[in-house]
Amino acid sequence: MSTSGGVVRRSLLDDLATSMLALIADRKLSVGDQFESVRSLAERFKVAVPTVREALRRLEATGAVELRHGSGVYVGPNVGRLVLANPLALAPSADRLVELLQARALIEPPVAALAANTRDAAALEQMARDLATAAELIASGDHARLAEVNMDFHRSLAQASGNATLAEVVESVTVVNAREQLEILHIHGDRQADLDEHRAIYDAVQSGDSDLAELLTREHLDGVLAVINQRLQHP
């Protein structure tokens, strides 16, 4: 009986969360806009206040809403996303990390080709900023921040494709192993070579050479994967 009740409650919370997202969409609210109060939502959907809070916490876990103590409910940065990384995922094992890199090596090269065909202007500008920041961080020796910026470059590359769903997929697989990027950077070793490869990818995308953008991205990720595999086999 308790299992059945739990299933019903989860279904209620899922339906309530979905209804809230639909309400946000119907009102054309944007990221940062204030949403209805918890009490108002409870009255609207004819449920108890604690039930509304629980549904909102589910949405908050995905970044669809933000609950600001003493202020209210606000639309979160992930409200329109279709693809999300698991926010509670454990750090991947070495084998799982290799799988993530293999997935990126399959997904990102054709996305880079699409980016070269589309060349979203804002994303290209962000790629250029990422490259400039990476060069500064190499010079200063801030390797922890460099790992983050290198991941930012790959996300900007995906955004340049103009396909929001593909950009979300790439962001999700990079977020999943973001904590391991610094270790990859240490293993991969040559930070300047990594930056040079990123610059070459950027140049290919900016010039609209889709074949070259795809090739360079594949070679870049395959190169990282090969070094990781070698180090894991011969630590």
From TrEMBL:
Annotated GO MF terms: DNA binding; DNA-binding transcription factor activity
SMART domains the UniProt entry points to: FCD, HTH_GNTR
Domain HTH gntR-type as annotated: residue spans: 10-78
InterPro entries linked: GntR_C, TF_FadR/GntR_C, Tscrpt_reg_HTH_GntR, WH-like_DNA-bd_sf, WH_DNA-bd_sf
Superkingdom to which the source organism belongs: Bacteria
Keyword Transcription part of the UniProt annotation: yes
PROSITE patterns in the record: HTH_GNTR (PS50949)
SUPFAM superfamilies listed in its UniProt record: GntR ligand-binding domain-like, Winged helix' DNA-binding domain
Pfam families named among the record's database cross-references: FCD, GntR
UniProt KW keywords: DNA-binding, Pyruvate, Transcription, Transcription regulation
Keyword Cell division in record: no
Protein name in the entry: GntR family transcriptional repressor for pyruvate dehydrogenase complex
Organism: Kribbella kalugense
